[in-house]
Amino acid sequence: MDNYEIKQLSSTEEWFQVFHFLKRLDGELDRDQFIQQATVMNAEGHQFFSLSVKQKMVVIVGGSIHTNFCDGKHLYISELLYGNEEIDLYIDALFVYLQTWAKQKGCKKIIVSTNVENERFQDQDSALLNYDESRHTFVKQL
Predict the structure, then answer these.
(1) Hey, is 12 helix, strand or coil?
(2) Are the C-beta atoms of 63 and 78 separated by less than 8 Å?
(3) Per-residue pLDDT at 126
(4) Cβ-contact 99, 142 below 8 angstroms
(5) CB 53 within 8 A of CB 4
């Protein structure tokens, strides 16, 4: 496995790395819109983590810590962004890092929200039948 680095992105310059990474994935991303949204997200406690291989960012994970009755204190991951690079070799290392980070913050779970297909609510009797299904969650007990 090649040399890689995982880190929490906390400075303004590092958040702009997120913008440039997203720009590679979505050529129409507007810089001013990104700044506006990132400012709100940062104020709400959103964190970004990056995984770089040979000093090139290949994966970005974004999320924040929440507490609710159902899950207790947990890290909620709302962004899992990656380019065309093979990430299979590195994704496990990134999630081990996130598990350690979340435990240090007192979290009992990591919840990952993703666009992976799920047939759970496709039953015709479901109260969620008229909701758009766009994201699904995966939970890891810490």
Answers:
(1) helix
(2) yes
(3) 44
(4) yes
(5) yes
CB 110 within 8 A of CB 140: yes
Q: Which tokens belong to 132?
A: 């758009």
Looking at residue 127, the DSSP 8-state letter turns out to be: T
Sheet holding 56-68: strands in order across? 4-9, 47-53, 56-68, 72-82, 109-114, 136-141
Averaged pLDDT of the chain = 80
CA–CA distance, 107 with 95 (Å, rounded to integer):
14
Query: What are the b/e assignments for 66-98, b being 16+ CB within 10 Å?
Result: eeeeebeebbbbebbbbeeeebeebbeebbebb
pLDDT tens digits, 70-112: 999 999 998 888 766 667 677 788 888 999 999 999 999 998 8
Return the structure tokens found at 44.
């709400």
| 3-state DSSP assignment of residue 11 | coil
Q: Which residue has 């949204």 as its token pair?
A: 37
Instruction: Give the residue among 14, 99, 10, 21 at the shortest CA–CA distance from 60.
Output: 21
Percent of the residues in the chain that have a pLDDT greater than 90, as a whole number? 28
